[in-house]
Amino acid sequence: MSNAFLIKYGEIGIKGKNRHLFEDALVHQIKYALKPIGGAFQVTKEQGRIYIEALGECDQEEVVGRLQCVFGIVGICPVEIREDQGFEKLAQDVIAYLQENYGSKALTFKVHTRRARKNYPMPSMEVNAALGERILEAFPDMKVDVHHPDLMLHIEIRKMINIYSQTIPGPGGMPVGTNGKGMLLLSGGIDSPVAGYMIAKRGVKIDAVYFHAPPYTSERAKQKVIDLAKVVAKYAGPIYLKVVDFTAIQMYIYEKCPHDELTIIMRRYMMRIAERFAEETGSLGLITGESIGQVASQTMHSLAATDEVCRFPVYRPLIGFDKIEIINISEKIGTYETSILPYEDCCTIFVAKHPVTKPGLKAIRRSEQKLQEQIDGMVKAAIETAETVVVEAE
Ligand code: ATP
Ligand code: MG
Fold this sequence. Notes:
By secondary structure, the protein is α/β, with parallel strands linked by helices. About 40% of the residues lie in helices and about 20% in strands. Strands 1, 2, 3, 4, 5, 6, 7, 8 and 9 form a nine-stranded mixed β-sheet that branches. α5 (about 190-200) links the parallel β10 and β11. Bound molecules: adenosine-5'-triphosphate (ATP) and magnesium ion. Magnesium ion (MG) binds next to loops.
């Protein structure tokens, strides 16, 4: 079994200086993703390629599983790396490689050679032909098919010779850290972890904020959000999660404002507070799991009322998704099981039976006027007493 991997990444649009940043961020994220496995890995950047080598035994499946969480990776190729000791030795290595990986199955194949090192004494086409011949001799049941081979055998002649035949798909996207930082409003639901995943996939580093309402919401509800952040961190890297005690603010809104406007006013205060954290920590936008029409607070009118208080751009990557599509992603990324645990959310406790679906901005502003006396102090206190949890991937 191979204990080295050749990493392929998207190359479009990453020329010049950006390429360097892209590769460095990718190496950084790969190291982070492999850390929980234990064991030593060497990750090296070389001539537009990234190599990962396990310095001891490794479980190939586990390594591949971890690498499939690293944005920017397009393909993962288990690779054999051999010193160049002449063509005869290469032919023997290739036959041993095929024997080990495919036995003597009746497969069709094609040899595809690339010479990154032009001083190799044989041109690529000649290597293809000569290796093809040796393979046919060694495995009488194999056949050449240059159009649709079962097995595409890649030989790359670099400083060392790379032999590989399998490309396992990666998640695509861009390495986290190449595209600034965003503040995710993370609840215990299905949507917001998926939203964080989607934005991280575009290279954005994620911070998060969770509003809880003790004693109305439990420690377990908070732990659930931390557990969700742990899963998102597998893709997005460590997450600084602010846990805000929102009880006083919620109670005050509940006491002073019309109940059908509660959710929308609460949401406006969540955004205001999230924005303050974003400002403090250098995030460039807010991220939510909202999608148009999913609930009363997510109609076009409600979203407009929410956005009215935001100076930062609000990114809503799920905006056009149906619930079932969001669930599919959450199952794929591993957050679903945790999201459906039945712990109460602060929004569900104070929610009105018939919330407004078309809040008028004037009415909402008028209701917020009633909070004038104490709300600024409460917001200040909520920000100052917020707890920061550093959430690492498991
Ligand atoms: P989710 O499944 O993400 O909880 P939802 O469909 O339940 O979303 P809402 O509860 O209306 O929808 O919340 C909309 C968005 O507001 C969430 O996706 C999240 O980004 C943010 N949000 C809601 N409640 C909280 C909370 N307690 N803490 C932090 N963010 C929250
Ligand atoms: Mg929710």
